[in-house]
Amino acid sequence: MLHDTDPYYTALFAEFHRQFPNVTIKDTAESFSDLLTVTPRLVASSDAPDLVRLPSVGTLVRDHLLLDLDPYSQAYGWNTWTSSLIEQMRVAPDGVQRGTGPLYQMMAGGWSITGVFYDKRLAAQIGMTQPPATIADFEALLAKAKAAGLVPIQQGSDSFAFPYQALLDRYSPIADVKAWLYRAPGATIATPGATQAAQTLEQWGTAGYFQKDLAEDGNTALGNFEAGRGVFFFSGDWMTAPLSQAMASNVGFFRFPPLQAGGPQVDMGAPFTYGIPAKAQHPDIAAFFLNWVSTNAAARQIWFQRFGNTPTAPPGTALPTGTPGTLQADLLAEAAKAEASNGLIDFLANATSGIYASTLMPELENLIAGRTTPQAFVTKLQSAYTAELGR
Amino acid sequence: MHPAQAMTGRPRGATMATVKRLSGHRARVALVAWACLAPALALYVAFVVWPWILSVDYSFYNWDGIGPATLVGLANYARIVTDPDLLGALGHSAILLLFFCVLPVGLGLVLVAVVGRMRGRFAALARTVLFVPQVIPLVAAGIAWKWMYASSGPINSLLGAVGLGGIARPWLSDFDLALPAVGLIGTWTLVGFCVVLLLAGVARIDPSLYEAARLDGAGAVAEFRAVTLPGIRREIGIAVLVTAIAAVRVFDVVFVTTQGGPGRATSVPGILIYQLAFTSNQVGLASALGVVLAVVTLALVLLIRRAMGADA
Question: Do A353 and B280 touch (CB under 8 A)?
């Protein structure tokens, strides 16, 4: 097995070996960035691993290097698990379109949810007693924070896409967003919903709801938020550990509110994914292992202890809830709600390999700084998308 | 090519004419010469010339670097001259020419006029201090300056201390000032190089020329204009050439400080080529941009050489 360097795997393999002493796991660990460059070559070689940590399929499906996992999916029942997560791992036979077709990756370990972290002390200062029920309520809170001389949103320029997508996922029909994300033929982001989301974000920028330094990087933004220099912070549950450590019980989390009270909420959520190379010698064991990670309570506990967010599991499994009153408890509760309502979607940045660095990040900066119009932003995003996909 | 590696002129060969040999021996000598050159030439062809030819080839295709490539002729080039973002990057290069080339050479000349007259240990110290920025890797300089320009960095603290706190800001995040800010990092790095180069030129000027000027009653400024400047014309040409090339090919400083941001305020061809080729998988367009950049650089070099006199 090929995976990234994380102590999680040591503990996981030890437990697996304890339960199944007849199976030996020979594993290779690479740093995450090396993993991305090394994986395609190793998967294509005659010495391919049986299982590989695969954040994205890249061109492996098109080059017929990955095993179709549908037979295992039928056998183990994976196709009955949270579909908005499972579908992210399907790839059409053309190797480009996602969300449909055979299953080429499988999630194991855990999955992340995104939303809004808030500073409880500052929130109390502006009279926020509970998470906002609608977008309008959220905007009212932003205005109050601004009036009180606080920084309403502390956000690194590398993650402006989080508030943007949060808005997009509410203003636009989710099927349209998914079609664009999944590279369906003829998909476009130049929709009224996308433009409206861009307009709202631009208005927030003009109203001064973001920190003064718009090009601030993620680490600085995190540091500022931890130091109490921001009321809200859009991010995901991978921030549980640093935020809990820095802010203890002073930080909470809620999913971005719906358009209308009680309306649909779809948020970015993505799982840890693995693939089985087509040239694997022991694919059955690899698939068994994948299934074991999610169905075995001890394995789930290892993930939870290491990462603290929701472990992957079949529907109906009793999941950890964390200590009440902590940030972790908030996150787990929100994640459970999202999973129950099947309201999860992949990140916009994954639409193509280059869209984030080439267009999404710089143009969102321009948008919030008022240097481009919502219409121009959306048009530019679409043209970069088609240019990169060669359409 | 590191600026310090620039050659300062073709050496007038120690002549072989004094040696009269049989043509067979000359042929053997020539063979030995080629044998010595061959390894370096082979490496050069393999790693510079051949990739260059390949780049030109790729520039006529639409290619993601892995799958099949589609021939698109001059479409990539058409895109470069019509796409405002790509043109903007080239425009930013022109602005950086001011900061990387004009300013350092200008400042260098002023400093040479001042430091050039000094003698002794203080002069040596001054020269060393001025040259140190050249020794620091550009990436390290970029990181250090990024910290200096930060909201809570030393520059803003200094401004606050002298009562100018009102203009303090995160310089590298300002849409209008980010490019000049990055440009100044280049100025800081290259001034030392220009000073050392120009001083070397000054050292070659015949002191009797200065004496003659002084006898004619020339003051410091007139002396500089009449003797120093013409005497170091060749060095000025080299300095302009090297710094101009540095301006057009800049990548590391921008990558480390702003990555082309905020928005696209500091995007330069170097950054775009990297992004297009390695993140956006548009190898064809990246190659075309590379070719355009090379052509622009070549044109610049020819222009400068013509302006500075052909012997530069």
Answer: yes
H or E element at residue B230: helix B229-231
Mean pLDDT of chain A: 92
Give the 3-state secondary structure of residue A108. strand
Cβ atoms A96, A182 nearer than 8 A: no
What whole-number distance in Å separates Cα of residue A353 and Cα of residue B157?
Answer: 40
**What are the pLDDT digits (tens) for A111-167?**
999 999 999 999 999 999 999 999 999 999 999 999 999 999 999 999 999 999 999
Contact A29, A9 (CB under 8 A): yes
Q: Nearest by CB to B62, which of A62, A372, A390?
A: A390
Report the share of chain B in percent with pLDDT over 90: 47
| Residues whose CB falls within 8 Å of the CB of residue A4, separated by 6 or more in sequence, listed in order | A29, A30, A31, A32, A35, A53
The pLDDT tens digits of the residues spanning A349-383 come to 989 888 888 899 999 999 999 999 999 999 999 99
Cβ proximity of A68 and A273 under 8 Å: no
Chain A environment of B275 (Cβ under 8 Å)? 354, 357-358
Residues in chain A: 391
Residue indicated by tokens 């530069």: B312
Distance from CA of A353 to the nearest CA of B (A): 6
Which of the two residues, B205 and B187, has the higher pLDDT score?
Answer: B187
ipTM of the complex: 0.75
The residue-averaged pLDDT of B193-217 equals: 87
CA distance A82 to B277: 37
Interchain contact, A362 vs B275, CB within 8 Å: no
Q: Which residue has the tokens 């040259």?
A: B131
Q: Provide the 3-class DSSP secondary structure of residue B85.
A: helix
Rounded Cα–Cα distance for residues A130 and A150 (Å): 19
Selected residues 153-192 of chain B with any CB under 8 Å from a CB in chain A = 169-170, 172-173, 175, 178
pLDDT tens readout for residues B24-53: 788 889 999 999 999 999 999 999 999 999
What one-character-per-residue DSSP string does A142-187 give? HHHHHHTT--SB---GGGTHHHHHHHHHHHS-HHHHHHHHTT-TT-
Under an 8 A CB cutoff, do A358 and B275 touch?
A: yes
Alpha carbon distance B93, B269 (integer Å): 8
For chain A, the straight-line distance linking the first and the last C-alpha, in angstroms and rounded, comes to 37
Nearest Cβ partner for A215 among B262, B267, B275: B262
A357 contacts B280 by C-beta, under 8 angstroms: yes
